Amino acid sequence: MTIRPTSARLTVVAAVLATLLLGVTACGGADAGKGPKLAANAALPDKIPDGTVLRLGIPNAEVALKTSGLIDEVEGYDIEWANISGGPQSIEAFRADALDASIVADIPPLFATWTDTPVKIVAVTENPDPLENPIYELGVSPKSKVTSLKDLKGKKIAYSPGQAQGALVLKTLEAAGLTQKDVELVEIQSVDDTFANALAANQVDVAPLGGTQLTSYLAKYERDGATSIRTGIRDDATLIYGPEETFEDANKAAAFKHFLGLWVKAEKWIDEHPDEWVKAYYVDHEGLSFKDGKKVFESSGQTLIPPSWDGFIKRHQETADILVKEQDQPQIDVEDLYDRRYEPVVAEALKGGQ
């Protein structure tokens, strides 16, 4: 079942398109900072030629670098920040040659590959306590009676096949001993408040909501009966990825090598300045109260950067295998998606602590 666009949803879509176009304009076009081609097995260069530009949709890094002052350590290249994040928006921006990299969960690189947009993953993060601090919970609509996973049978569940929320739904059903035939999956792309709006309108019984979306949803509708339940599923995989062309460009590859060192410093700054981070990101950028922002940060907002990617890639393959089975996607070896030349770059930066 596909929910047809309502006026509110069309407004959201229009806003997304407007944001994307603004991002394209801000990023200076397709030829910004182009350099010579770098072989996939070549060593990462250190020299960054003048005029090199990285076009990044990594909002948390932008806020952390600017708030901490670490942005002043960007040397030899410019960063053009795009107001683009999340799987669908980032993939469309890659296809439009409007973005060099973005931060997403582990599903978008799979769907980019399955839809003929080759990408590479160059950094990963995890949550230090992923089961205790999940990114997503299942939001429950005000009129639905869902208090545990066993109550999902027969319910309408918001489902976005190409996003992390979609994989979470499939994993949750499997953990509950249910199949897709036991529920009604309602295909909705999770963009801005689309899942929360569908819940509030009782168009679906359950929808995965994370971080600020869950906090805002419960703040608005808990008085009407809205609740949430936990899935018990690990959902903490987050990564930085971009189109292959970004990392085949020697100039951008060199700049990205430097940027990832700064990104590690920014994550360390966040850990050491939690209150400043909550105000800058969750209050000023995301629009939450300080109390709610602190709650989100202390639950799902903390990150751990692993020096080795082996465990992350193993779990990523397990997730891909579920989508191959449940969505009839082509077989994929996720190891091929990772540019492991950047793994020691991040590991070296981590020697300064995180």
Automatic annotation (TrEMBL):
Matching entries from SUPFAM superfamilies are given as: Periplasmic binding protein-like II
Record's InterPro entries?
SsuA/THI5
Keyword annotations for this protein, in alphabetical order, are: Signal
Q: Which residues form the signal peptide?
A: 1-29
Which segments constitute the SsuA/THI5-like domain? Answer: 131-276
Q: Does the keyword Transmembrane apply?
A: no
Q: One Pfam annotation, family name?
A: NMT1
Name the record gives this protein: Sulfonate transport system substrate-binding protein
What is the originating organism of this protein?
Nocardioides albertanoniae
